[in-house]
Design brief:
- By secondary structure, this protein is α+β, with helices and mostly antiparallel strands.
- The protein has two domains: about 140 residues, Jelly Rolls (Sandwich); about 80 residues, Orthogonal Bundle (Arc Repressor Mutant, subunit A), CATH 1.10.10.
- It is about 40% helix and about 25% strand.
- The chain has a four-stranded antiparallel β-sheet. A four-stranded antiparallel β-sheet has the order 2-7-4-5, with helices on one face.
- The longest helix has 27 residues.
C-alpha cells in the first residue's frame, strides 16, 4: 500500500517538489514512499540546521527561504560553499552513506525545510529501484552545479561574477520584469553574497558600482537592471 503524502505539505509545496532533482522524474507513489513520515519545519534566520562533523541520518529539501552551506577554516572563519533556496536539497549522498556531514548549514533567512529520514529513503529504495536512480541523478546534478560554480568563479572577473549572480538570482526568484527591465531585491546580505562569490565586501561593492555602465543601479538591497538580456550577454561575452 502506498503511504499518503505528508498532510502538512500544501499544493504549492508538492508542485515545488517537482523542481527538486531528487523528485523530478519520480511518480507520486515513489515520492510518497520517500516522504513517509517527513514533516516540514520552520526555522528562524540565523539558526544552525546541521553542524559540520555531525552524523548524517537524513537529507533536507528547502521549501522556502535560503540556507548557506559552509566549512569552518582552521582559523575559525567560514568558507561559504554555496547557498540554496526553494526547490533545492542537500546531504543526500552523505546521508545515504551514513557518514558525517562535511559542511555546516545555517539559515540566512526564515526558512521552511523538509527533512527526509535516511531509514525512510533506504526503505523506499528497497521497494522501488527507480528511487536509487533518482538519488544518483540528484547527487550528479549537485556535483555538476558545484563544479560549474567553481569554474565560473575562476573564469569571470569580479564585475562579471556579480553580474552573473544577479542574472541567476533573477531567474531563480522568477522576478517579474517589464520588457527587459528587472527590479530585484537581493535575497540576503551583501556580505554573504560577497563570501559566496569569493570576494571581500569591499571588492563586491566596487564590482557592483562598475556595473552602472551596464545598466545596473543599486538602492540599499534593491537592484534595478535596465536590461537583463544585455547583462546576461555581457557576462558571457565581455566586450571591454
Amino acid at each position: 500500500m502506498t503511504p499518503p503524502l505528508p498532510s502538512k505539505l500544501d499544493a504549492a509545496d508538492l508542485a515545488m517538489l517537482r523542481n527538486v532533482p531528487m523528485f523530478r522524474d519520480l511518480d507520486e507513489t515513489a515520492t510518497a514512499r520517500i516522504l513517509a513520515g517527513a514533516l516540514p519545519r520552520r526555522w528562524e534566520k540565523g539558526q544552525t540546521v546541521v553542524e559540520q562533523g555531525a552524523k548524517a541520518d537524513g537529507f533536507w529539501v528547502v521549501l522556502d527561504g535560503w540556507v548557506k552551506l559552509y566549512r569552518l577554516t582552521p582559523s575559525g572563519g567560514e568558507a561559504v560553499l554555496t547557498l540554496m533556496t526553494a526547490g533545492e536539497s542537500f546531504a543526500e549522498a552523505v546521508s545515504f552513506l551514513g557518514g558525517r556531514c562535511p559542511v555546516s548549514v545555517d539559515t540566512v533567512t526564515d526558512v521552511r525545510l523538509l527533512r527526509v529520514e535516511n531509514a525512510a529513503l533506504r526503505r523506499a529504495i528497497a521497494d522501488d529501484g527507480s528511487i536509487a536512480i533518482a538519488l544518483l541523478a540528484s547527487i550528479a546534478h549537485q556535483g555538476e552545479a558545484l563544479t560549474d560554480q567553481v569554474d565560473r568563479m575562476k573564469a569571470l572577473t569580479a564585475p562579471r561574477r556579480v553580474a552573473d549572480f544577479l542574472v541567476v538570482s533573477a531567474a531563480r526568484l522568477k522576478t517579474a520584469r517589464e520588457g527587459g527591465r528587472v527590479d530585484l531585491r537581493l535575497p540576503y546580505e551583501k556580505a554573504l553574497i560577497a563570501a559566496r562569490l569569493g570576494m571581500t565586501p569591499e571588492s563586491f561593492s566596487r564590482a557592483l558600482a562598475q556595473l552602472r555602465r551596464h545598466g545596473v543601479t543599486v538602492d540599499r538591497d534593491s537592484v534595478h537592471i535596465a536590461s537583463l538580456e544585455r547583462l546576461a550577454d555581457w557576462v558571457e561575452h565581455e566586450d571591454d
